[in-house]
Amino acid sequence: MSKEITFNTKKYVEHALQSLKDNGLKITDPRKMIVNLLAKSEKALSPYEMRDLLKKQKIHADVVTIYRVLEVLEKMSLAHKVLAVNGYIRCSTTEDETACHHYLLCKNCRKVEEVEGENLHSLQTKIAKDYKFEITSHYLEFTGLCSECSQKPKRK
Fold first, then answer.
1. Neighbouring residues of 40: CB distance < 8 A, sequence distance ≥ 6
2. 1, 85, 88, 116: which has the fewest Cβ within 10 Å?
3. pLDDT tens across 23-33, in order?
4. What is the reported pTM?
5. Which of 117, 22, 119, 127 has the alpha carbon at shortest distance from 78?
């Protein structure tokens, strides 16, 4: 049985900014803004959605800069691309950097939850061994309805 990964916004921001610093990267305004957006969002955000959210706060940010920041955050496992919605979400597993990242994606409200799978690491190890294949990454996304959306009455 899987367990839901708990998340703390302040802890994520502190961890992300410290990780950037520890890797010799400057804490620029664009990096701070994107880290804060990711920390506050339960949905995967596209770079264009991030730009629009910043614009509402009277902050100008171009999409190219946002993509560059996301690329850095993704390389450092501080953010992950969610393929099904072509957006990015913060990494919730700040303690265990070897943890796999799997997602529950609500097709109604677009909420994304990161979950751990008990046997997924051993399955990955078995596949690598059986097929003599060095796995460098993988993606697992489950699409459906979150608990809130599945309880809403369906429209006709």
1. 9
2. 1
3. 999 999 999 99
4. 0.75
5. 22
Residue linked to tokens 């700040």: 94
Question: What crossing angle do the helices spanning 63-75 and 47-56 adopt, rounded to 10°?
Answer: 120
Convert the pLDDT of each residue in 53-63 to its tens digit: 999 999 999 99
| Centroid of chain to Cα 75 | 12
Whole-angstrom CA distances from 40 to 43, 44, 99, 122, 134 are: 9, 11, 22, 32, 35
Q: What's the one-letter identity of residue 5?
A: I
Phi first, then psi, for residue 90 (nearest 5°) are -70, 155
Query: How many CB atoms are closer than 10 A to CB 148?
Result: 11
Beta bridge pairs of residue 142: 104
Q: What DSSP character marks residue 82?
A: E
Residue 144's beta-bridge partner residues?
106
